[in-house]
Structure formats: C-alpha cells, structure tokens
Amino acid sequence: MVTLGFLATIAVGTILLSLPIATEGARATFVEALFTATSATCVTGLVVTDTAVFWSGFGEAVIAVLIQIGGLGVMTLASLLGILLTRRLDLSSRLVAAASTRSVGLGDVRGVLTRVIKIAVVVEGICAVILVARFAITYDMPWGTALWQGAFHAISAYNNAGFSLFSDSLMGFVGDPWVSLPISFAVIVGGIGLPVIAEVARALRARRRPRRWSTHTRITLWMTAVLLVGSTLFFLAAEGDNTATMASLSPGDKILSAFTQAVMPRTAGFNSLDTSQMHHETWLGTIILMFIGAGSAGTAGGIKVTTFAVLGVVIWSELRGEPDANIFDRRIAPATQRQALTVALLGVAIIIVPTLWITATTPGISVAEILFEVTSAFTTTGLSTGITADLPWFNQLALVPLMFVGRLGPITLGAALALRSRQRLYRMPESAPIIG
Amino acid sequence: MVTLGFLATIAVGTILLSLPIATEGARATFVEALFTATSATCVTGLVVTDTAVFWSGFGEAVIAVLIQIGGLGVMTLASLLGILLTRRLDLSSRLVAAASTRSVGLGDVRGVLTRVIKIAVVVEGICAVILVARFAITYDMPWGTALWQGAFHAISAYNNAGFSLFSDSLMGFVGDPWVSLPISFAVIVGGIGLPVIAEVARALRARRRPRRWSTHTRITLWMTAVLLVGSTLFFLAAEGDNTATMASLSPGDKILSAFTQAVMPRTAGFNSLDTSQMHHETWLGTIILMFIGAGSAGTAGGIKVTTFAVLGVVIWSELRGEPDANIFDRRIAPATQRQALTVALLGVAIIIVPTLWITATTPGISVAEILFEVTSAFTTTGLSTGITADLPWFNQLALVPLMFVGRLGPITLGAALALRSRQRLYRMPESAPIIG
Ligand SMILES: [K+]
Ligand SMILES: [K+]
C-alpha cells in the first residue's frame, strides 16, 4: 500500500512536470519528467536537467511538494514500522499471542504524523528563516526571491533531498557559514530519524541521563558524531591540496567546506565544492559514506548507521572470541545481526548489478564515476560527478527503479525481516564448513 | 611459527634472487627481489619484471621452488587447521575436556604432508607430461626447454601461482586445448583443497554416494561447478564482441578462452586473453570472482567458496524468514555464520584501504585498475591490468604485505575464530536496534 502511494505520487508528479507550465522553455520529455519526479519523491536529488534553469516556478513548487511528501512519508512509514517492531518484540518476549500485534492503530498513525509534521515545521522553519534573512540581506535578493529560495532549500535540506535552485548547488556559498550551517543543521536533524529525535526530546525534558537512553539512540548519536568528525578530517586530508576544490580557500573556509562535505553524503547531496573535480580517492571515500547513510526512520538513505555499527560490533566480538556481540552494555539480538548482514550485502549486490550494466552499455565513462552515481542513486544521496545528465536515456531510466528500491528497500526490508519469523518445525543437524 | 616460516622463505628467496646469477642482465634491485620472492612464496603471481626475460635459469628455478614451498605449505597448514577444527568440534560436542584438543600430533603432520605431496606429484606430473609433449611436438621446442617449460607451468598451475615463462602468459596458446586444459585442470584441482580431494578419493574408493559426503565437500563442489559455468557464460557475454580479445576467435576457441578465463580468477592468474584490453565490466566481474576465490585448504586465495556460499544461504534464509540457515539438509552453525561474515567484511576493508592509498598517491591510473590490482594481490590471484610494473616503488612495496596478509590472513583468521571461544561469564540484556 505504501509502495502504491509512492508510485501514485511519482505518477502525479510526472504528469504535473510534463505540463507546459512546468518548464521555462521547451516542454519536458517523458524521461525528464519521470526521472525528476522520482528523484524528488525518493528525495534522491540526482538531476538530468538544471533545476534552476529548466523548470518554471510552478515546476519548482511541484518538486518541493514531492520532496516534502516523499521525505515526511518515508519518515512516517519507517517510524510506524519501528513502533510495530518494538511492540512485537515486547509482546513476544512476554509470550503474548502474536496475532494482535501485527497492526498499528489509527491513533499511532495520527500521533506519528503529528510529530513528524511538528518537527519538520520547526526545523525547516529555523533553517528557512536564517537562509531568507541571509539571502535578502547579504546577497541583495528581492524578499520574494529570498523567501522562495530559503523555503525551497530548507525543505530540500530537512528531507535530505539535495535539490537546489542554484545551478552549482552551494558552491557559491562555500565560505558562508550562514548558508552552509543552517542547511547542514537541517540535513543532520532530518537524517537522524524520528525515534532518536523523539527520545532525546523526551529525555531532555525529563532530564534523563544519556546512559539510560535506548541502545538505538546511543548508537545513532555516537555514529553520527564519529562519522562527521572522521569524514571532515578525511575531506581535509584528501582535498586540502586540490587546486580545483579546496586549496585556494582560507583555513577557516577549508574546515567549513570539509564539514559541509562531510554532512552531505548522509544523504543530502548538496555540494559546496565541485564533486567532478575531486580526487578519485575522495570519490571512493564518499561512496563508502553514502552507502552507510544516516539514521533509521529519518529522511536519509543508505544502509543506516545502526546497520553499519551492528556489523562492526559483530566482527569485533568475533575477533575477540566473544560469544555475544555487545554494545553499550546490551547484547545485540542474533536476529538483528542477521538482518544487518542481509541489508548490507543485498545493498552491495543491488549496487553491483547496475554498475556492471551501465559500464557495459555506456562507453567512455570511468567505472569510478558510474559506481559513484549508482551508489548515489541507490542511497538517495544525489551527489553527482556530473555524468547522470550525459547518460543515454535508457540508463537514466535504469536509475529510476534504483532510486525507488533504494528509498523503500532498506527500510521495508529491515522491518519485514524483523517482523517475519516462521515457526521452527524441526531442525537440521548442525554443520560447520571450513571458512577462509 | 608458520608466519615465521613464510617470512624466512621470503627472506631466503629475496637473497637468492638478489644474487648476480639470478638475472640475465642487470642485478635485481632489492624491491624487485623482495616483490618477486613474496609474490612467488604467496603464490600470487603479480610481477614487476618480465619473468621470462629478466630472470636467469637459476632465478626461474628459485621462483619455482618458492612457489612449490608456498603452495604446499599453505595447503598443509590449512589442512592441519581443518583437522584441528574437526577434532575440537567432535570433542566439544562430546563434552570431553578441551585441553587435549589444542594440539595436532606429529603423526597428523606426517600424514597430511605425505598426502599433500602425493597429490601434488600426481597432478603436477599429469599436467607436466601433457605440456612437455605438446611443447616439444607441436611447438618444436628442444626437449630440454620443453621439459623445463612444462614442469614450471605445471608447478605454477597446481599451486595457483600464475607465474609464466612466456612474457604474454598463455596468450600464445589461446586456441590450444592441449595447453589451456591441462593447466586449467591443475589449477582447479589445486584450488579445490585437500579436504575435498581426500574425501572424494575415499568416497569413490568406498563407492559412497555423494548424498553422504560432508557439507563442506558438497558446497565446495557445487560452488565450483556453478562458478565455472556461470563465469564462462559471463566472459562469453562480456568479451564476445571485444575485437582486442575474443571477437576474432572461432566459436570453439571463444568457449575455450572463456572457460580458461573463468578458471583463472580462482585464483591462478594465468591469462590467455589480454587482461588490459578487456572491457571494464569484465574487470569488475573478475574482481568479484577473485574475491570469492576457490576452495578452503587448497592453494587458492580469496575468501573461499564456502564462505561465499554460507553468506548467501544466511541471506536467503533471512529473506524467507527461516530461523535457521540450512544447506544440503544441514544447519549452518551460528558461529560459522559469524566467521563467514567476519572473513568477508574484513576482506573488503583490507582491500579498500590500499585502494584508497594507491589512488591518492599514484595519479594517472584509474580506480578500476587499482581496485583490480589490489584485489588480485590480496586474493593471491596475480591477474593484472598491467599497472603493477609501473607503480612507484613505494606502492610496489605496499603490495608486499598485502600479498602476505592475503595469503595467510583468511586461512588463519577463519581457523583462529573457530578455535577461540571465550567462556561466557554473564550475558548483557538483549537489544534490537532498528536495521535499515
Ligand atoms: K538526497
Ligand atoms: K596466483
């Protein structure tokens, strides 16, 4: 049903974007309209046309609405699945019949939706106000333009969409903290996920100490901090000497741009440095960051930081010879371990297939660029080395289902795996084939 | 101790290859001697010099001996670890005190060594006889030359080393089944691993039906068949139209070269087609095949087909909602599942780091080529897009520990994980963070 809702949104978006009033000049082709509607609804941010130049005000508004529906829709869906999971786990551990637990009541839906919208309004509002003021005052935009630009970028940022009304994304604001930081703030909050935001808000009100927060929240916050600091340092090291990106910036601007660059692969997709000019090792690092993504039940894509952390903890425990995989004084359930493995390895498999296909059918583009673009599409990041607009139409079309699978796949897969569990009627005798 | 043995072999090899009599012309530099000795002992097959032209007869003989020691050494080591594991599992399941099980007796060592040498002599002998006859009769080589060429290539093939005394590897024999097939035969048998060879030999003698073979053997044989057929088809599809490799061949030669090409990434490293001229999608496919490798406790590298199969089965069971991961009517032990995950993901991590490093420090070489070369070094395959000889000396040196880790890492890691198991003194409360 959710899938149908997404498909319907994309269909309506495609029709609206195909209208003559949606574009400035020539009418959009079917592929252009479909690709853009999918990219907006899946909050991916990859584009085949220059958003600022190609689409009219009406077209841009359609895109903004699609982004808002897509982003908040996913957040709501994932949060409801999360509630369902928690309940079911609680119930099953109390040995209550499982039949009644498969449903989430209308009250839950209303509660989650209210909260999702409330947080979105607050965060997008803060971000928009700062942006509008900055655009109007420092950049001398007319107030009407500043308002539209501020609102659009706040929506695009909070929903981790990465669509921009500037042809060069945020590259014109590389040294401006009053643009980079509010957008980064909205991106991080949107990407951290509703369960964590809600719990932190409750905990702060109740003055509950972090030690008593849930494992999920603690993993997410820690991983967010570690990844942000780590990737800021990575980008400084990798791009600091690149004359096409960072080399000419002042030390302060270097750090600001590296931080912005560290925020965006999880999985917002704005860029304040020129992605196409980055070193290839920077691309590889970005590919890994995009694959990891941000928090569960937020607006971001990727396999999610909890999935990554669980895999890391499992490997670490295994190396230390521990029979259990523990994190923050909690033992990770074996089922959760298998889910993480499945989500991560299926993600790798889903990225490999279109990479092979596009490499085989599009001569003249390097494997690194194709892997970057496919990962960006699957993880709904939207960062681009610039090849998407140049791909043949059938390979642009190939990215459409990939964005869709990348948007709904990991969320629903994770939940489906956790919810499904067959009765074990009999067990096979155990076997331990040699590994390695 | 085993690590020391390998290091000592490499040290002696480096010294011998540094001698003036080891080369035809100018004496080998330290990096050339060390790289070649490591590549031979780890049966990797990557080269920084043209083996046929650069080394003298003495140098070639040193390389052959290093290959034989390295290949049989690894086979013996892994087989002994396998015995140790089986025993320990048997004992622990019978609740016998674990203290006495940590050691493998001298009798075991002698038994395994005898078997390892016996099989090597038989398979290398068969391969060598056919090659020598073919080289002498069809290619008009003097018998002395044919004998040396046949013996060297048989040793290099059975030990999955991939060193060749022809500057273009087997490309001169692309259409000759009497060269390609005996070499492929030796490669497959060497790569399938002693436990499987031994069990199949016993089973055939005892006329035991395949259904009663061990899970390890059945997984290995099935995966070998599936991978060989699948990758033959892949190479036919990917390279069939490539004028620089397969396009000009007759249909029969196409199939022969595709089959040879399918055998070599697991992980022998000969090539009868020009690797540097292949399409990039072929490189990607080859990278995946190299990473998987061949059978455990053989002469091949990679994470091994059983590891790959176990991960596949775990994901499949998870998708189907099965609480157990079953294959061939056997339940895969949870510990084995975690071992497979650890070996595979650590393998990915170990490949990513040098790929990033070499990309950052060697401008002008594509990421695809570097990833290919690093994977080839780690999996001890030795296939090359041709960049290794052109890398700066410090990056050639960087491949040396990588070949070493790739050779001993997965084997000893797998065994170490299986042997180590700490007492569980207390358990943390369970927790299930949201995945995906
Ligand atoms: K995005
Ligand atoms: K090899």
From TrEMBL, chains A, B:
It is found in: Cell membrane. Its main location: membrane. Signal peptide: none annotated. Keywords: Cell membrane, Ion transport, Membrane, Transmembrane, Transmembrane helix, Transport. It holds the Pfam family TrkH. The chain crosses the membrane at residues 6-22, 34-55, 61-85, 116-137, 178-198, 219-238, 287-319, 340-360, 398-419. InterPro entries: Cat_transpt. It is a multi-pass membrane protein. This is TrkH family potassium uptake protein. It comes from Myceligenerans indicum.
